[in-house]
Amino acid sequence: MMPSLVARSWQILTEIDWKTAAISAVTGMAILGMRLVMREPIKAATNNARTIRLIWFLSPQKPFGGKWEVSWKVSSTRYRPNNVDTVQIRRLFSNVTFTTCTTLVDGSRQKCTFLGKLKNLTVTGRWYNPDGDDRGYDGVFQLRLHAGLGDGIGAWAGWTNDGRVETDDMSIRKVG
User: Residue 54's pLDDT is what?
Assistant: First the structure.
């Protein structure tokens, strides 16, 4: 019985088109290699608020369409204690971004961009001044979406221009 098993195995090996098998293996490795090489630049590009705003439509995902209301509190001489901004949230894969434009106590406007990753029902990320001025405003935030995906609560923390760390509540709510 053993010689016939060996003979059959040898027969199968001699019937294989080794040239086609080699080409298939090389092609498979090339595709896998290209995928691995391209993954990091794509991940890096989609971790940018501007890129997400430009190509978010490639990955339209609910519930982030429409308008949202972002509310946040702060203890500051420049900002009102309770701030509410209406924003459009953009999502590309697991990346989420939105930009607030808050009216300050003196009547001027201050932009703030939020850029985060969505994992399960939690958005975790950073916020910063998109205009790049060096007032020192930047920090982190985390929002937990409720199961209905129409609202969420969380907190922000960040540096002030005099080197202190502030933190307070924030929330989001879908309004349209």
Answer: 63
For residue 92, give the 3-state DSSP assignment: strand
What angle is formed at CA 149 by the lines to CA 85 and CA 39, rounded to 5 degrees? 90
Positions of E strands within the chain: 67-73, 82-88, 90-92, 95-103, 109-119, 122-128, 138-145, 151-159, 165-174
- Give me the amino acid identity at 82: N
Q: Which residues of the chain have pLDDT under 50?
A: none
Q: Render pLDDT for 134-171 as a digit per residue (tens, 0 to 9).
A: 665 789 999 999 977 789 999 999 987 777 888 999 99
Helix (H, G, I), strand (E, B) or coil at 2: helix
Q: Which CATH class is domain 57-174?
A: mainly beta
Q: How many CB atoms lie within 10 A of CB 95?
A: 23
Task: Give me the residue spans of the domains in the chain.
Answer: 2-45, 57-174
Residue 62 pLDDT: 65
